[in-house]
Structure formats: structure tokens, C-alpha cells
Amino acid sequence: PDEEGVMNDVYTGVELAYSCISYTAKAIAQVPLRLMKYSRTGSDPVPDSHPLQKIINRPNFMTNKILFIEGIIVNWMVDGNVCIVPYPTTKMPDSLWIVRWKNMAYVLDVKTGHLVGWEYRYSNKETAIKLAQEDVLHLKFWNPNHVIEGMAPSAAGRLPILEFYKSSRYNHAFFDSGAMPGGVLSSPNKVHNDVIEKTRAQWREKH
């Protein structure tokens, strides 16, 4: 892929990015996630029988708590943004879902420019599911250039990521071609066959 293709898929396309992000996500996913009930006297964890704690322990039918947290961290670090959406949104939800930033669109007030809602776009079609502002948990990295959109770490690491990718591609092609550096040796004078063969032998022995 070209440079933009690499930057759009750093997690699966660049070993260095995958290693860093995957290691971080797996480490964070080991931390227990508990729902706390706050009061004037302090805070205490709710029992496992609490409906919301049940959702945290088993976010949806496709994943468990560990993979759910890992998925949040991976998408957060790849895109700089990640959204968690409860379902259904009209009553006590029975599941939580991770939505990648490319599938979410924010809706701004025309006059004030403030966030008033979200749209979940599940395909390239214009069809979108409208969501209220309070129905979407948006996690992001701070971006001094935008109020709503977070900045992906890969944006700041673009140069070293591309350098790592290009050097890996070069080494791959180098060994595929027999690990023999190519080139042409020329001389302004006539070269005898024994000199040519000696030079070739020296080149092969060295490389």
C-alpha cells in the first residue's frame, strides 16, 4: 500500500504499531472494571447482580469483558477516538457496543456549533441511525486543533511509522531477490575476462 494506506491501517499493516497498541490494550484489559455507587458518605462497588454491572461483565453476546476493554483501547489508540453505544437506548440497555470513529458522525447546532447529537453510519450508504448526545460515550485524545475530534497517536508518529514500514518492505524485497545488492560496474578501459571473473568472485564472496 501507499503511505495513506499504511496510515489508515497501522494496526494490521505495521508490526511496530501493532506490538505497542496490542501490548497496551492487553495490559489495561486486565484491570477490573467495577461500577461504583456514590453517596455523601463515600462510594462502594455495586453487587454483581446489579443490571449495569452485569452489562459490564458481559457487554454483549459477541464478546466478554476482557475483549471489550481491549477493543476500546485498540480503536482509541488507532483512531484517537472511540464510541461506546448502549442498546437499546430507549430503556435500560442490555448490551454495550464499540463503534469505530469512521462509523460515527457528530451533529452540531447550526447557530452555536455545539454538539447536539450523533449519527451511526453502518455502511457507505446515506442511511444513518440518529442518537442523542447522552446516548454515546465518546472517548478521545486531546486535540488542540479540534473541539470534538480527538487526535490519533499515529498522526504524531507518522514519520517513524512510515520509516519502519519502508525499511521492512526494503528488507523483505532484499531477501526475496537473493539478498544480493544489484548494480552495474563500468570501466572506461577494456577489461579482460580474467579480471571480470575475479571481480565477480570477490563480489559474491563479500555479499
What does this structure look like?
The chain has eight helices and eight strands; from the N terminus they run H-H-H-E-E-H-H-E-E-E-E-E-E-H-H-H. The strands form three sheets. Strands 4-3-8 form a three-stranded antiparallel β-sheet. A three-stranded antiparallel β-sheet has the order 5-6-7, with no helix packed on it. Strands 1-2 form a two-stranded antiparallel sheet. The model has no long low-confidence stretch (mean pLDDT 88). Helix 3 packs across helix 5. The protein has 207 residues and is α+β, with helices and mostly antiparallel strands. It is elongated. Helices cover 40% and strands 19% of the residues.
Blueprint (SSEs and pairs):
Blueprint: H1 3-8, H2 10-13, H3 15-28, E1 36-39, E2 42-45, H4 51-57, H5 65-79, E3 81-87, E4 95-100, E5 104-108, E6 115-120, E7 129-132, E8 137-140, H6 153-156, H7 158-176, H8 193-206
Antiparallel strand pairs: 1-2, 3-4, 3-8, 5-6, 6-7
Helix pairs in contact: 3-5
